[in-house]
Amino acid sequence: MAENENPIRFGIIGCAEIARKVSRAINLSPNATLIAIASRSIPKVKRFAIKNKVSENVKLYGSYEELLDDPSVDAVYMPLPTSLHVKWAVMATEKGKHLLLEKPTALDVKMFDEMFEACERNRVQFMDASMWYHHPRTVKMKELISNSEIFGRVKAIHSSSSYQGTAHFLENDIRVKPDLDSLGALGDTGWYCIGTILWTMNQKLPTTVTALPGTVWNSARVILSCSASLYWDEEETVATFYCSFISHETMDLAVCGTNGTLHVEDFIIPYDENSAAFSFTSGAKFVDMHIGWNVKPQQVQVDTPLPQEALMIQEFSRLVKGIKEGRSQPDSKWAQTSRVTQLVLDAVKNSIDNGYKAIQMHFQFLSGCSIQTTLLKTSPSFKV
Question: Which residues does the UniProt record annotate as the domain GFO/IDH/MocA-like oxidoreductase (predicted)?
Fold first, then answer.
């Protein structure tokens, strides 16, 4: 059966700005179609539909419950404030809707587990909407980093995600409101930084997480800017990240191995949606008298047939279709990726709240793919 036959039917719950991008991605994906959008009122969802030139065939609902009760909806994309995720995500899964959830997934891992347990119980697919994982550039970068001959062992990682919020943003956006998205910049931009570091380390949790002094809060005690260090004892690998609402736009990743280095400046949103690049160097040495280098960085260009957000929808829809047709079970890979990101995010927040003390992460992998037990405790020191 062709991929574009019987496409997965999407509903969008919430008319956040990011929903504009994802609604376009659904329309671009060959195996998905948008059939419903819901907001808390009909006027709001109608304004969204007009602004985004939504097809007249798409159903518009004035409540989230109406969309979830629609039996023709296979999957929902949910760009709601983080504080609302548990309620509506659990309700969606109980209605049999597959769940594409905007990041950060939850305010803490306990809330994440409540949602994912509901997904498992109702046999629905879970994925968070971190689009960069789905770009073919990401696959190529992983291929090079994983090549021990040309890259060696990963020793250091740095990631940053930041942008300068306007005065209106810093006063009114939901990401700076403690009752809506209390994690602030750590949950929004920090989610990407932590995600890319763990991606580099094959989703292995660090041994120690330490927030670095210099956190900036607003008057409501929501984080506007912070940074942290992660350390893996066995690999002797260190990572740092910086996330912020109050500095210039950055989306950087730098990975240093024993034999090579990789740099990318736009890992979250590529400069061009049709093609993306990164810099890669292997075997670099200084020439005689240290007046230059023996090699220059190689610019690796990776084209893509679809924007990364459409590739995300395509992959999610492929998984959902396999479940619908009885050919496969929900793939827990994406929940694992979200959960370890959530665990490290929790540890950073814990470290900040405890005066920048180191957090020792003790974890145990039991049956299946899920991380069953994770304990966090403060430590008086951080040793590298």
Answer: 140-262
